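pasting for the record
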Amino acid sequence: MEDLPKPIRYDYQALVIRPCGAEYQHYETDLVLILKSQRERYTKNRIYGISKEAFLPPVVEKSYDNFELAKNLERRYAIPLKFGDIVMFNDSDINHHESLVLRFRREKPLYEVSSNNLGPLIRIGGVISPMKLNTFWTPLEDLVIPTDIAPLAEPNVWLTAWIRIETNMLHSKDNYHLEYTFDSFAGCDPSDQSRVAEAPWHSRSIDSQFSMLPAEPTPCESDDEIDLEPRKDIYVKEDKWAEKINRQLGLFVGGRLLLCKDLPQYDFIIPLLKPVAVAPGEERTFIYPSIGEYFHFSAVWSLHHKGFLVTEMLPFQILRGYSTSVSGNILVRVNQASLGGLFTDADSSLGLLDDPHHTLCFSEFHPAAHGGLKALVEVHAVRSSENRSVRWRIVRTIYEDDHVSRFASWLAAATFCVGPIHGMVISKDTVISGDYPSVYFRLPPNSELSAGCGVRFRGRRAAGVDSEIMIEEIHTNPKFSARKVIGQEENRLFQVPLKMIPGHEQLARNEVFGPVDMRQLDPPEDTDDGVFYAWVRESPTIDNCRRACTVMEVFSVALNTPLLPALSGSSSGSRHSGSSRATPSSSSHGGSTSSRHSTRSINSNRFVGGPARSTPGSISNRGAPNDSAA
């Protein structure tokens, strides 16, 4: 058997960027942009012209037998080049002095071509830089994305876009001029996501070398089985990781993000926000998703995002969506959850909600707390890199609501006693108790109890004082003391026993503190009855917002003494002056030490959805009872 002929290899591959007709070739030439070279490493932005001799066929002696062959060769060679065509040629086919290509071979087009009223367009793939959100990197050139289009796309995702390549050169020897212009996004293909590693900022990344291999994060449950792919068009509940997620129910929360109740520990990122079909059929209308609407979606795992990229979205109009505020937050009614200090919505469709500003910390003392007190609040979604299971935060309480108005009136005048309960001293003037984990208990001014000391106490809430109760009687109780205490007032750590709360991989429980936020840490595997020791601290307040979903957060699960956290400008809620704690305003932009530089990326924005803003209804602007005390 004869060997197959080796494929012909050419030195250069080029893209036609400015074609011209045969009638203009006496003073113009077709211009091509070098895309790739087998001989040279750097060929960026190099332009050659195509000589008119390149369109002449090879000399074939015409005879009766080869007359048709000669005519076909002549017709093929005379076909003019078009914008977007791909040509191949060798170094020996180039007149370098004139920058002209003397012979070339046509190849199958690599890029889709279109046009609009501004001129011809070419569809090319690229990635938005996570450091510069208005920069679209492509193998040809970096392009500037218009500011009104940039928020529609997610960084670090391989996208295709329509761009214009323009030049005012008429001949290859003219003064060099080449201009790239971004026109619009075209689409996103999940099968191309491995090409994200081609971006220059991934050149030294370890992940980029293995970007074809999907990572397997810790499943939601204890087993490591991967769900089988369900049948299409059938809703199948999934509660653990799989490389592909099919036909799940998600809530659009803005910022190109869907949340799935069955998989709260993952972000489902919409790589390119575009209109979706409202009514399938011949008369379909396309609209952009609205915050608070439900969608059926499918998604695939993204190594670079440590989350899922949505590949399909269909409106699910059977479920009624949520109302939203003018600031882009979802409006829900909440009540106390079974876990102290946390809340849940009326039908538990959002899961647990956090109250970082302590605006409803006294709601469980209200006479109607267990009989139907449902406060109307605005809530924001939190990205999974911050909270793994408590994905919602209360950012504003609607005091115009009747339920909340009655609660505020009661709060302005109510006094009540608490105790005896146990707790632990966490600072020079503050005690935290697991019985009421979101309430600060104030030590008497003459107290000399040290941090980490276990206590049993009684307290009284004064009218008009917000989120704290003054301790009237207190006794030490070593049973509730911390095992070890290190650090000073600003970075103090307590070593205490914890046990994970079933069904909430983000939360652990301590007998003294109540629920404790594990942050991104996992419990040790070798534990006795699930109990392990960890170093916890009061969650720092950053930009007027508590970072964790509970007052206390885990700093380390190591048995040995860890390095103390670095001191920063952030503070903790218990460290304040005066006899009462002023409730912060309704700002929702509580940053994190893990935040990145991006302001639009899901990976780098603590809150997603529309920006929150202070409104007349917020606590800080309504003259709430705590204002005078502050």
